[in-house]
Amino acid sequence: MTDVYIVGVGIHPFGRTDGLSGLQQGAYAVRQALSDAGLDWKDMQFGFGGSDASGNADAIVNELGLTGLPIINVKNGCATGGSAMIGTWQGIASGQYDVGVALGFDKHPRGAFNAMPAEYSLPDWYGEVGMMVTTQFFAMKLQRYMAAHGISSTTLGRVAEKAFQNAVHADHAWRRAPVDIDTILNSQMINDPLTKYMFCSPGEGGVALILANEKKARELGRTAVRIKAAAVRTRPPGSFEVFAPCIDIARGGAPTLLASKAAFEMAGLGPSDIDVAQLQDTESGAEIMHMAENGFCADGEQEKWLAEGWTRIGGKLPVNTDGGCLACGEPIGASGLRQVYENVIQLRGLGGGRQVPGDPKTAYSHVYGAPGISGVTILQR
């Protein structure tokens, strides 16, 4: 396998952008990434791209140029962007290509995601009782976890408070004003125990990454950020995931456990080697559960981690340094790539007010989506 490097990154700010389609926001991000890498669109040999609600990614050629570029469309839930990057990484690592683009974008309407039971092989009654509403599912899953491992509502609030504080320093974030923990805890209850400030919102945005093999990266003078590992896994028996129609009494596996283990083995690293992490935080509880599922702490230890500030910018493992989904919102196709974008910025030392101190050298990203799929990427400088 050939070493693969991220040589260019670009992002269109997340949130709401009137007058621009999701596709156009994706094209904006690609232009930024090309400029960052010192390349032109005609230099791209192939690409993988994803969108959930804004059309096929291959239509980006209408915005950027009809070069005959092969583009593979990806649709993989919230793991769409991460999966697009993994496809691009595999194309270069295999030796088939020297340079390519991974892109993701979306433009969701206001309100909850409109998932349909039949799309997930579920009967109509599953939707009729409200289980297709993801806020309800996540709250129910979280209540079980909190009861089993002693997680408090205060800890959920600390996750959200940290997110909004970090986002103050992230130009691409949607919500960039700090919110104090009392406001978070006492805001409107959406699904117990999660208040409105503990959920992310469907939004808009685009992200693009330019990947290259070592030879091309050296030509460009961009060998600083290497992809050490990338893995995607679906749910194993006994896991309880989004749109799962039942639950085992004894907890089974989880796709994140599998993806994390595979990525760490591929990289030859362990959780203690990671300097900064971006974890899927569809809501505050997701970040807490994913801290343990990715191996950074034991179940229940999150209470101490958050109380001691260990996941803040200056903590022993900064988590979601740009505010994560809670502050940036979630355009499905772009969200996973935003995590990798943020890790590249951190490894380049360009985070400004949100920059992790101590010259970070390893960065970890984790995405999770319906109906139970996880992707993990490890970068190293």
From TrEMBL:
Which residue intervals define the domain Thiolase N-terminal in the entry?
Answer: 5-173
> Pfam families this protein is in?
Thiolase_C_1, Thiolase_N
Q: What GO molecular functions are on record for this protein?
A: acetyl-CoA C-acyltransferase activity
* Top-level taxon of origin: Bacteria
Where is each Thiolase C-terminal domain found? 259-377
Matches recorded under PANTHER family: ACETYL-COA C-ACETYLTRANSFERASE (PTHR42870), NON-SPECIFIC LIPID-TRANSFER PROTEIN-LIKE 2 (PTHR42870:SF1)
Name of the protein in its database record: Thiolase family protein
- Give the species: Sphingobium phenoxybenzoativorans
